[in-house]
Amino acid sequence: MSKGLKAAIAVGGYARSNAAALVDVVLEAERAGVDSVWSAEAWGSDAVTSLAYLAAKTERIKLGTGIMQISARTPSMTAMTALSLNELSQGRFLLGLGVSGPQVVEGLHGVAYAKPLGRLKETVKILRMAFAGEKLKFEGEHFVLPRPGGEGKALRLDHPPKHIPIYLATLAPRSLEFTGEAADGWLGTSFSPDHAEAHLAHVRRGAEAAGRSMDDIFLNAACTVSIGEDVEALIDRLRPGVAFQMGAMGSANTNFYNDAFKRAGFTDDALAIQELWIKGRREEAAKRVPDAMVTQFGAVGTPQMVRERFQTYADAGINGLTLRIDAPRDAQANALVQAMDLLNSIGASAA
Fold first, then answer.
1. CB 3.0-4.6 Å disulfide test: which of 129, 260, 320, 322 passes with 190?
2. 145 contact partners, CB below 8 Å, separation of at least 6
3. Alpha helix (H) residue ranges in 135-266
4. CA 256 to CA 262: how far, in whole Å?
5. Which residues of 164-174 are buried (b: 16+ CB within 10 A; e: fewer)?
6. Can you give the pLDDT at residue 103?
7. Which domains does the chain possess?
8. C-beta neighbour count of 54 within 10 angstroms
């Protein structure tokens, strides 16, 4: 495998599927050499429960939250959860955090979405204190520990100090800069290696301002993988998912996925698809997705085309790919093995 280019998978939605099948997928991924598995959290499954279960079923694969929503938990609870999962998994835990969006934060959790970056920054600071074994005494705009005027006192979590890598799922420019400044890793979505600087320029700016380099940050990008000979059919099958991102993953005013595609040069397309989706014309929205909004944001096509796309990600500076396998359920295991073979072949030819 090319240097640093590792494979990951994402799991979620087990509330609507067979939880035992989820374990089978992860065990197959572990056997295939996948480096990490990331648990989803939106408005169904939480990001923690599945990983605790998987920690008992697996031996090597790393277990990451992809992502814990910071508005759903206090920073101290996030820290306790992370330390507990790290202990249960014998040091295999990776903490992925994100701010989610206003529809989920305000609609589901009933808390204000305002100033999400400020809350994320303070959350990371408190987490670092907790992981270092310090007493949690903090005064910020969003969090004050202990609560003033009450009977609380600064507490140290009952865990030995541990280094737990913090990955941030960020999309907006200032959030990407903070990722470069403070995170151990980045969980990237709506990323195209053909337009890498739309994201990475901001990460780099933050890293340089903090006296760091890009080598200090593990860059992990989500990559939809669809392998087959009928390339146009593969693209057509993926158009609805892109339309969903453009129209449904946020409000009409706040959609970080839509904004990321705009920064990559797809402004007219992203806005037109979003408008159709919001009007309820979802089939038209899917048809409006151009081929490039599928092919440039994943690895789609014949085995050779997919292999070349993997190489493009590596050349863009990406260290890891979360492989989102587009295949029927009964064919996903074989498709994952095929994708891993193609990914491994990059390193073999580069060695």
1. 260
2. 76, 126, 136, 137, 138, 152, 154
3. 173-182, 197-209, 231-248, 256-263
4. 10
5. bbbbbbbbbbe
6. 85
7. 6-228+302-350 (3.20.20.30), 230-298 (no CATH)
8. 22
